[in-house]
Amino acid sequence: MVSMPSELIxxxxxxxxxxxxxxxxxxxxxxxxxxxxxxxxxxxxEGENIRRVLDRVRSVLDPVGVRYEILVVDDDSRDGTAEIVxxxxxxxxxxxxxxxxxxxxxSGAILYxxxxxxxxxxxxxxxxxxxxxxxxxxxxxxxxxxxxxxIGSRYTAGxxxxxxxRVRRLLSAAAVWVTWPLQxxxxxxxxxxxxxxxxxxxxxxxxxxxxxxxxxxxEILVRARIRSVEEVPFAFGQRYRGASKASFKVACDYxxxxxxxxxxxxxxxxx
Length: 271
Ligand SMILES: Nc1nc2c(ncn2[C@@H]2O[C@H](COP(=O)(O)OP(=O)(O)O)[C@@H](O)[C@H]2O)c(=O)[nH]1
Ligand SMILES: [Mg+2]
Prior knowledge:
Layout: H1 6-9, E1 36-43, H2 50-61, E2 67-74, H3 81-91, E3 95-99, H4 106-115, E4 121-124, H5 136-144, E5 149-153, H6 166-177, E6 197-200, H7 201-204, H8 216-223, E7 229-233, H9 248-270
Parallel strand pairs: 1-2, 1-4, 2-3, 5-7
Antiparallel strand pairs: 4-6, 5-6
The structure holds guanosine-5'-diphosphate and magnesium ion (MG).
């Protein structure tokens, strides 16, 4: 692991992790042993799900042959999540637990995990099994074949939203639609709100992100140095156990993020 200057840890900047984290060149057949993936699994009271998620992710990634670590970033859950993860870390050092005290926010949790690894491929996946770990090899293969960003996508052909009500589908479609003018022409993702994606570290390092949001992918699409995107379809599953943390505050954070991104776009045009 790389040690970061302490002033960077609390900032919203994604630090550079130095040469160790540079992705290997893509010419020829990639040697998977040259790559390392850090998959963040953010948790807030996911004690009933986390063991199952960690077991499934490891059984999917082990046969791929890539080096990896799974960083569970827990915001001080009160349901035993950390204790369960600690037990797994003792069996398997590739699983690491990072606990944040007195902090909340999904984007901040993901960035915190990414700041504590030297991996060249950074990723995120929910802890409630709505994201099938079985998609990870396909997402990895998109990165290995030269894409900067690989998105588990509910909106691309073959993907799906599961058992959502018509109102929720409409709201989600509207939330995607408003991102269209913000996204870069030629690189637009159909599912910019996905919480399941992998990105090359060199595309996001030294970019400043909003910690309080729930939709880090949209910020990455708009503000990071992304040159190519692949969307891999998947069907959004049902939460395995426990309750969703999406709330009115999450919707407000999303509105604030949109305002900030639109304001940034307008000031760029004027400048
Ligand atoms: N560390 C951390 N994880 C969070 C936070 N909010 C949500 N999560 C995790 O983010 C993932 C997605 O949250 P979820 O409630 O399932 O959202 P939904 O799928 O939109 O209903 C889950 O793994 C949650 O445990 C947070 O504030 N901090
Ligand atoms: Mg969920």
